[in-house]
UniProtKB/TrEMBL annotation:
Organism expressing this protein natively: Streptomyces rimosus subsp. rimosus
NCBIfam families attached to this UniProt entry: TnsA_like_Actin
Protein name per the record: TnsA endonuclease N-terminal domain-containing protein
A Pfam family that the UniProt record links to this protein: Tn7_TnsA-like_N
Native organism taxonomy: Bacteria, Bacillati, Actinomycetota, Actinomycetes, Kitasatosporales
Superkingdom assignment: Bacteria
Domain TnsA endonuclease N-terminal: 43-113
Amino acid sequence: MRPFRWPQGGRSFAGWYFCATTGEHIGYESWLERDRLILLDADPQVTGIASQPFWLHWHDGRRRRHAPDYFVRLANGQGRVVDVRAADRVDEAAAEAFAATERACRAVGWEFVRAGVADPVPMANMRWLSRYRRRRCLRQDVAGRLLEVFSEPQPLRSGAAVAGDPLVVLPVLFHLLWSGALVTDMISRLLGSDSVVHTARGQ
């Protein structure tokens, strides 16, 4: 509902993120918004994402308006509105805008989320894996071998070597980690050669 701007010397970092979920580029206005896009793109419950989706207008003694950062469609049909702002940057005006947005969402049966700074370790892991989010990284023959190899937990690099040439195998492995077909601990430590990888339950 409003254009993205890239002013020379500006303090924000706007750009376009290619979303594997939608197959389209989605705008962001800061690294924080870009990180949230990565997390939304990797969420299997998310089926659609739009940036700057609408203007919300309201009156509290004066005319007010706010454009949330994202509208998200979930697999169950539910709508979710997401505003991205670090906690230390939520001033009085922003807090009022978020409160008004939450009230409006509740009135129409949508969720509202104010997302802040993501935990640094899992976010660093997801930034790395997002490089392999595109379907071109998925080779079905290699993926099949990886799912067999990691049916029993084992270290990432040694398991990849069993599946074939690491130069061919690793991009597919990272795509499977991105998609959730393979899992490892990405919360407490950075992804590495010795990260223990295994298939997701039910895959």
